[in-house]
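Apologies for my clumsy wording, but could you write out the amino acids of a protein and the tokens describing how it folds?
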Amino acid sequence: MPRRRPPPAGARTDLPPLGIVRKILLLQLGYYLTATALILFTTLVYGRPFSFDLLLNWDAVRGDTTIGWILGLVWMLNSLLGVILLLLLVSRSKLIPDFALTIHFVHLIATSLYTHTIPTNWLWWGLQFASASLMVFLGMWACRYRELQPITFGIGGSSSSSSQQQTSDPSEQDGEDFASGSGGRRNRGNEFEMGKMKGVGEQVV
């Protein structure tokens, strides 16, 4: 029987199924929690009672009402917060599109189950497309920016700099001692020669 090739290194631990499901659940939960908080704040400011229709009803995003446009802006702001969640939980640029599109696909299923109909509002579909695109592009850019950051080791740098200073200081001191020693010997030689010349002059006189 032909031998089966071993899986590449990290294939079983890179994307475990339970880890993927856990990340999807955490991302979806964070997506709805931030959206609920933003919509609740908006309704309090606008003076309208909060309802889950604003969260899961696709007909709430309308172009002929003020609250419909406000909800569109709120969902786009929620997408910006979703980029932070993707950066924290996924942190890999090549996996960002899969998780971002999965979030919006699950939202489509939840909206369809809540309203018992498939969304037919083109403004809602356009909002989902814009939100998914924003999360994909900004999420990939943020992850790649963090991946390209240089890795620095503060302890090694400080020890190397201190060792360089320790190795450079003795040489400088030796050089200074050598210069002072040579200068001292020259001064002593000059004094000796001057004293000798004075002694010879005195004898002649």
Q: What stands out?
A: The first helix runs from residue 11 to 14. Residues 62-149 form one domain. Residues 39 and 45 are 10 Å apart (CA to CA).
